[in-house]
Amino acid sequence: MVRAALLKRLVSNSLTVAGKPQHHQLRRLNIHEYQGAELMSKYGVNVPKGVAVSSAEEIKKAIQEVFPNEKELVVKSQILAGGRGLGTFTNGLKGGVHIVKADEADQIAGKMLGQILVTKQTGPQGKVVSKVYICEKLSLINEMYFAITLDRKTAGPIIIACSKGGTSIEDLAEKYPDMIIKVPIDVFQGITDEDAAKVVDGLALKAADKKAAIDQVKKLYELFCACDCTLLEINPLAETSDSQLVAADAKLNFDDNAAYRQKETFAYRDPTQEDPREDWQWLLWTLSSCMVELLPTSWTLVEMLQRARWWKHLRY
């Protein structure tokens, strides 16, 4: 009884300061690809035509209404993890991204919906695919890398770009270190035409109009700031055969501390794709450190945690 009461008091004190509940912010809201495309489109960024579906009926309807003249389509499973293209479904289907004939899209999408996709980032447990994103197949002539993130050195946004794309930035940095450019942005002045031009020059465009590309870079920066992003990564940023610059695939993360003023963006949150222990991580680490520092009473605390069913959540 005494031990249980002590544990309850420890937890209560950890969760409150001056009598007010405390919630640790992880600065990590992540949204699905189709949601990112929808958001970018609102800011005038070029994205592939696509529609998210969650049932067989929606798939057939989308193909008939949105893609009536398309011969090939791209079917993308939607989970909050990378490596989908090389992932494997537990039902045996290989790959979470497929380019298929239009009349076969409903079949492949049906094999993805409701199934578990395992990638390098999901761990062996994988994640359930609740939605599939069906997109037009673009005719690409060039793939590049583009990202905006926060730089600790300059205490502001920084744009990272590379004339090569389609693979991870780590691989690009290893293979093409001289092709990666970084353009820090003055947070008070905002992005200038000169800043955007430096980025476009670093992308080494083959066909897209430079002026239009500068405009796209500025719109991406506007989105980054307006939506309180911590990361806006487009890989690939592609040039199409009709000389358009298109954000073919994007990853967007947002600052959780901005949830109070970004209600529309945070409505995109998909709790089914998140680990319920994430918001408790700080408390778990605190208790772990207590066991190390308070060695004489550590085993008493361990026993209390076991009885309270906390032990299975602890990580070292």
UniProtKB/TrEMBL annotation:
Gene3D superfamilies: ATP-grasp fold, A domain, ATP-grasp fold, B domain. GO terms for biological process: tricarboxylic acid cycle. Keywords: ATP-binding, Ligase, Magnesium, Metal-binding, Mitochondrion, Nucleotide-binding, Transit peptide. One of its GO terms (molecular function) is ligase activity. PANTHER family: SUCCINATE--COA LIGASE [GDP-FORMING] SUBUNIT BETA, MITOCHONDRIAL (PTHR11815:SF10), SUCCINYL-COA SYNTHETASE BETA CHAIN (PTHR11815). Its cofactor is Mg(2+). The lineage of its organism: Eukaryota, Viridiplantae, Streptophyta, Embryophyta, Tracheophyta. GO terms for cellular component: cytoplasm. It comes from the Eukaryota. Residues 37-263 form the ATP-grasp domain. Coiled coil: none annotated. This is ATP-grasp domain-containing protein.
